[in-house]
Amino acid sequence: MKRDYVLLFIALALMSFLLFAQAVELNNSELNNSQNNTDNSSTTNATLENLKECRAACDTIHKNETRTCNLEYKNAAKLCDDQRKVNILSCGNLTGQDRLQCRRNVQMQNKVCRKTATDNKKACLVNDRVNKNVCRLSCLISGNSSSCQTYDDFSTALNNSKWNESGDLEERGVNETLGVYHTAQLNGDDKMSMLKISRTFAPNETIEYDVNYVSGTGNRRHTVDLDGFNDWSLFGFWNASEVGVSNDLGLYHVKIVFSDQGAMDLITLPNGTITSTQPDGNLSSPALTHTFGLVTDTGENGTVEMNYDNVKICTA
Ligand SMILES: [Ca+2]
Ligand SMILES: [Ca+2]
Fold first, then answer.
1. What are the tens digits of pLDDT across the range 102-128?
2. Which of 68, 141, 171, 208 has its CA 20 to 30 Å from the CA of residue 84?
3. CA quadruple 176, 177, 179, 184: dihedral positive or negative?
């Protein structure tokens, strides 16, 4: 039971991060809508309307979370009662006092089990209220201070003052027809390419971008380079298994939120699901500023095509 409690606590902690991240995402997407992807840096103060919408989104999340707490409680209580039935039946093998004692023990176990379920529900609801408050607070913080700009939409040749290219992948560079930064390895090989940003990131700054995962065979993946370490698999396939969050082909949207502990990733899959790398999207690299790069990587006989676009940076 103690282990269940610990697992539940971990689940709640994870849920609270995801909800918080989602809330920030919701808020940012409203800000984005009001900016129309301008190439110029522009500060956007959330209008009262945006703030209201952001808070309403928090309240919706809160309602869903409350429902989840109640549902979890219902399921846990049912498990207790199912277990009680099984245990009571097993007492049937005994006679006299032993049987009575057995049944008393079973009732006691059931009581403890149901109390744990109730305690977990209470903790869940408290956590839920905290999440809601954090969410509503984030509406205010992002709304008042966030400034976003499109860093590059790759409509013209690569701007070398913005980027540092490196690596040995067969094809890499801006495809001006498609308006993307194209990377591809056509002949199976162990290669990689990196597109590193010529600026550093401070805590609470974010970068987001699209990756069109067009094709791949063998070992291939998209990773990010954080402070010179580039082994953070966000998605793809490596050594006979999927790595990161998915290996589906299609359009991914990646958002990275920097902190003094490193960064966190929030990834929208081609099917629209928002998720993070396990266990909590945390890319650990404690420092007050971070360097960041986009990596297309193949291994052994891997082939791949991944195209990058719409790189946007928000300062805190
Ligand atoms: Ca573009
Ligand atoms: Ca490689």
1. 999 999 999 999 999 999 999 999 888
2. 68
3. negative
Q: Token pair of 2, please?
A: 């103690």
Q: CA distances (Å), 58 to each of 54, 126, 248, in order?
A: 6, 15, 30
Distance 170 CA to ligand 2 centre (A): 12
Q: Which residues are paired to 213 by β-bridges?
A: 250, 306
**From ligand 1's centre to the CA of 103, what distance in Å?**
70
Upper half-sphere CA count for residue 159 (Cβ side, 13 Å): 10
3-state SS class at 24: helix
Is residue 103 within 8 A of residue 87, CB to CB? The reply is: no
pLDDT tens for each residue of 287-308: 999 999 999 999 999 999 999 9
Taking the centre of ligand 1 as the mean of its atom positions, its distance from the CA of residue 34, in whole angstroms, is 19
Q: What is the pLDDT of residues 57-79, one digit of tens each?
A: 778 778 888 899 999 999 999 99
Q: Which two tokens stand for residue 168?
A: 């040995």
SS3 253: strand
271 CA distance to ligand 2 middle (Å) = 27
Ligand 2 ion: Cβ-proximal residues, 5 Å cutoff? 190, 192, 297
Please name which ligand lies nearest the alpha carbon of 219: 2
Please give the distance, rounded to the nearest whole angstrom, from the Cα atom of residue 192 to the centre of ligand 2: 5
Answer whether 0.90 is exceeded by the pTM: no
CB 169 within 8 A of CB 191: yes
Ligand nearest to the CA of 176: 1
CA of 147 relative to ligand 1 center, distance in Å: 21
